[in-house]
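Record passed on underneath.
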Amino acid sequence: MSLRLYNTLTKRREEFVPLEEGKVGLYVCGITAYDVCHIGHARSAVVFDVIFRYLKYRGYDVTYVKNFTDVDDKIIGKAIAEGTDISAISERYIKEHNEDMDRIGVARPTVAPKATENIKGMIRLIDTLMDKGRAYVVDGDVYYSVESFDGYGKLSGRGLDDMMAGARIDIDEKKGNPFDFVLWKASKEGEPWWNSPWGNGRPGWHIECSVMSQRFLGDSFDIHGGGEDLIFPHHENEIAQSEGATGKPFAKYWIHNGFIKIDSEKMSKSLGNTLTIKEVLDSYHPEVMRFFILQRHYKSYIDFSDASMAEARAGMERLYDTLKGIKDALGAGVDFSDTSEKNLSGEDEEVFRAVEMLPDRFTEAMNDDFNTPMALGCIFDSIRTINGYIPKGSVPTRESLFVLNYARERIREVGKVLGLFLEDPDEYFGKDRERKVRKSGLDAAEIQRLIDERKKARQAKDWGRADELRDLLASQGIVLKDTPTSTTWKIG
């Protein structure tokens, strides 16, 4: 089955056929660097990180470009308020962004250009639009004439006449049409500026992405992505100015991810309900955040709540519990180096064949418009099969260890595409436990002391004291799990 994706431009699912066989150009709108990243940024970042990873998994040579807007009204306002320049503000928040992305396992794009590094290209593109009669100058500002581009509105599905009829926008007498948008802004006192044929000024927001995508991917490229809030006007305007300048199709496929809500309300600073990535990671492992995002299709909205995150954490615990069980079984010391699938029969062969299907089933799910909920379902199906197969209280055979090792490799193979199962299970549970302990206020050292005391009681066959200590820990929400070699614990 070939990859099919929903194209916002055509409003239908289409088979993905890149412009150049074996290669993919992917452009995604990045942050405006004036504040720390919130979980809405995390969703977009994880969605396109998985798309990037999956395309590479399928063997494509992917050039992934994700920009930084480092000159903007909000950046300028913060710089003025702090008595510094815009570069100090943007560099601070680009650094914060990169740290957040690293923590949630988002791979760095191939190229991460900044708007201020591409001013000359913006001036050239605006100059081309002027020459083609698609832009005009008023008092040092340069505007794009939307009426000069017949296709305006094709991405958002809004006809210009319909937009005019229902317009609720302030009238600007400088504009030829209320929907004309600024390409170049004349400088104001105290603001940064660059020299241009129209006077000192700075670029408008929309022109930045056209120029940076063109520089690194060409006039036409495969996929343009971003949040659904960017469809209009940002992406609509990108198409108008790019195709208006080159006469060529801009992006072939457009992918947009849905919003995150907070307790069923739209997340916004005006409502005071934004959550930063850092705040979420104080309580949850980064892979729990990724799981939470990926358990819904990228086009759907997600509702963030304590309950939904608890479900995501429980899901990750089930997956890592299985990997832990495999790890413990493989630590049994039995040599299976001379074993192959030819040695398998009965249940061993049955489980092997079931797990062998996982990559193909995973690929089939992801080919269905990057259907990560279905892909996770395929992994859980394999997990259920493996859980019933892991030896309980008996020495595993060479054949079963071979199958378990193969299963671990296949789970990690597909998990890597989703950015999951990247840690040793003991490390995963240790880090997640630390977060829970920190949030609960429990004393980890005291918990370990009681576990050690219980261990001594069990060794002395003092079962009454051992049960008493287990009950004491359980009263604090501590769940113990005994294995033949150790006792692990978690906060239930």
